[in-house]
DNA sequence: CTCGCTCCCTAGCGAGCGTTAGTCAGTGGG
DNA sequence: CCCACTGACTAACGCTCGCTAGGGAGCGAG
């Protein structure tokens, strides 16, 4: 029926994956479809059997990633009430994701501006949702006397972007695993909101 | 002699400045020379009276910025011996620079990969110089018992990238000035290296 | 006034881009 | 065994890119 058969062929997933790698490496505008095709050992027009356009590739990557971040966040924080507990798990999954999904993170953070409207605005709204949710945890923690920061907005920016940047230096074949990085960075986050100064 | 006269004309500095703005907005590959020309109210080929190539614009931006970061660092740390003192001032100038030179920071961090070799490698080497210098301060502080971190490398990555990201959210017309942001972020950096846990 | 320089202009080159049309070989189902 | 279909191919489209060539207007210096 939907047979890929034994013939040498290419799947939609393979196209998306290769695009992801190249977009992360050279950026959306810096990557030509001919390069994606070459990496798949196929002629450029053949890509159109597996996608609608170059822009659609970027949209799929961004949408999937942003959705994943939000799902992660809710799964990690739901049922937890203590601000320390909520922040701990929110940062843990966020940091871990940036070690395990490096390419996605790089593309989303660099090339969201290359998305066509109105898709771009929709994605930015979703990103702000996560940003506001994290900031709310910090604000709640300050109000409850568990955290000590002058500006929850600044602290939440610092924590978020610190995690995002993991994608820029982390190496899969390095000496340190995603879980370990995530834990260390979560420690940093708790330091930033002043847990070390207050004492847990 | 080198007269711009009273005629409506354009300077090399204006071209570089407009390129900087547009590169920061849409990226190097996402910006066409025609867009730079349009912003300057000039036809595209006229740009070549003030530059040699599009690539040269990027090289100038990156070189000037990287050089500035390194100069800042040395000016801020020279003569200081105490790790806390050195880290404090190193982070202060680094964070401040990313609030006052947002466009430069965005371009350097996003588009260094669009530099042609061997220039790209040279710039990356200079960037690593700053990275290693900051890491050395942390390592020294740990050895001296002033800081407490498991991995100086991780802490230095976190601090650096946290500062870099200021460029991505800071607004010149916002309620908070560069100096204030820099001070807050320097506090965060000291938290990360464990000053809050040890006590100053 | 005139010479020479600066700098913008129009015209156009060659290359590469994303994308479409139309063809055909190989494959699995009946 | 044949037929329909998937998915690769070649050819070519219109467009935009970075960049060059060559001409001409405005300016300061003498």
Model description:
- Two copies of one chain form a homodimer.
- The first copy, chain A, is an all-alpha fold.
- Chain A has two domains: 12-49, Orthogonal Bundle (Arc Repressor Mutant, subunit A), CATH 1.10.10.60; 55-198, Orthogonal Bundle (Tetracycline Repressor, domain 2).
- Chain A is 68% helix and 0% strand.
- Chain A contains ten helices and no strands.
- The first copy, chain A, has helices spanning 12-26, 33-39, 54-77, 83-100, 102-111, 119-143, 152-164, 166-169, 178-192, 195-198.
- In chain A, helix 4 (83-100) packs antiparallel against helix 6.
- Chain A binds chain B through residues 25-30, 110-111, 113-114, 150-151, 154-155, 157-158, 160-162, 164-166, 168-169, 176, 181, 184-185, 188, 191-192, 194, 196-197, and chain B through 25-30, 110-111, 113-114, 150-151, 154-155, 157-158, 160-162, 164-166, 168-169, 176, 181, 184-185, 188, 191-192, 194, 196-197.
- Chain A binds a DNA duplex (30 and 30 nucleotides) through residues 1-10, 32-34, 42-46, 48-50, 53-54.
Secondary structure layout:
2 copies of one chain form a homodimer.
Chain A lengths: L11 H15 L6 H7 L14 H24 L5 H18 L1 H10 L7 H25 L8 H13 L1 H4 L8 H15 L2 H4 L2
Helix pairs in contact in A: 1-2, 1-3, 1-5, 3-4, 3-5, 3-6, 4-6, 4-7, 4-9, 6-7, 7-9
The structure holds a DNA duplex (30 and 30 nucleotides).
């Amino acid at each position: 029926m939907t047979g890929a058969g034994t013939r040498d062929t290419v799947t939609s997933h393979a196209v998306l994956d290769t695009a992801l790698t190249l977009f992360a490496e050279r950026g959306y505008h810096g990557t030509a479809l001919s390069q994606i095709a070459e990496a798949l050992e196929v002629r450029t027009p053949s890509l159109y059997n597996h996608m609608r356009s170059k822009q659609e590739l970027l949209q799929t990557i961004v949408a999937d990633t942003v959705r994943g971040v939000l799902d992660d966040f809710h799964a990690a924080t739901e049922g937890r009430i203590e601000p320390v507990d909520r922040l701990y798990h929110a940062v843990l999954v966020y940091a871990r994701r940036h070690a395990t999904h490096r390419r996605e993170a790089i593309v989303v953070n660099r090339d969201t501006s290359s998305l066509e409207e109105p898709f771009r605005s929709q994605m930015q709204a979703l990103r702000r949702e996560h940003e506001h949710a994290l900031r709310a945890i910090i604000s709640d923690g300050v109000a409850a006397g568990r955290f000590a920061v002058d500006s929850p907005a600044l602290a939440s920016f610092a924590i978020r972007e610190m995690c995002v940047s993991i994608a820029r230096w982390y190496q899969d074949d390095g000496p340190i695993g995603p879980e370990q990085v995530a834990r260390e960075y979560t420690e940093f986050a708790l330091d930033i909101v002043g847990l070390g100064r207050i004492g847990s």
